[in-house]
């Protein structure tokens, strides 16, 4: 059976492809320094597919997060963006349609040149392009659902709704990456894929949960979004209206503790996911391990901090620890025992070995 015509796009001019490649690599550090570090490990077509996927997801995320644009319009923009995945005319027209968005400068620059990211998407092999489009659509439709359900700003009500949101914005990423590993890495055969598939949602959701926890105050103040469920806050004598109230600090923290424990469980599943990646797929291991180590370190600090529940507060690990984890994480890649030992060390206290004098 022939494939639908829209899934076999005409080739873009080589000069435009080169422009798209330059833009993608230039914009990446501005939208995620951590991802810009990790993507360097992935070679060839796999690296291009993951880079393109990430930027497509960030475009969708930028639309979702703009609290100044009416929710119905954001829902429409998300749907228009999803059409660009198999419609060249829609892709070329999209930046002008999204011109009214507000937000972080780098993310807005990304949206303004979404047409170039979609050029890269069209250069991917057919099967890869289809799977990227499938999971970006799954994410985008879920985002549109939440934007429309909460026109006054996202206000998660229950644990079940929290988990649903995390699936759409992060579990989908774990699924997408796992399919790309299977498609482009010989070491990830059918048996390895099936084992990874069982834990791939937890891998994606773990990192998202940590981000939600460290950015509680930022999300509430700058994006008018609260992801800690109203039900859990009410059980402790607080609520969304008093999430950043100094008078309710301890009640709010008690509610957050439950989500810290959920994040810890997901991170442990994410670690098992990485340990299931064959050691000969070292590039994929390297890509996955650094975000995981950073998340473990951040979660450790969240356990004893209240900063994320105060106006202007945020929890970040030190640059020194980031540098140390980058070095020692890569050194531990080929040994599951070494990775477990490193994670155990990061869980207990900041990982900042004394540099060896040269």
How would you briefly describe this protein structure?
This protein is mostly helical. The chain is built from 17 helices and no strands.
Describe what this molecule looks like in 3D.
- By secondary structure, this protein is mainly α.
- It folds into two domains: 15-151, Farnesyl Diphosphate Synthase, CATH 1.10.600; 154-353, Farnesyl Diphosphate Synthase (Orthogonal Bundle), CATH 1.10.600.
- It is built from 17 helices and no strands.
- Helix 3 runs parallel beside helix 8 (126-149), helix 4 (71-83) packs antiparallel against helix 8 and helix 15 packs parallel to helix 17 (336-348).
- The longest helix is centred in the last third of the chain and has 28 residues, at 249-276.
- The chain is globular, with a radius of gyration of 20 Å.
The top level CATH class name of the largest domain: Mainly Alpha
Strand proportion: under 5%
The amount of helix comes to: 55-70%
SSE series:
HHHHHHHHHHHHHHHHH
Largest sheet: none
What distance separates the N and C termini? 64 Å
Q: How large, in whole angstroms, is the Cα Rg?
A: 20 Å
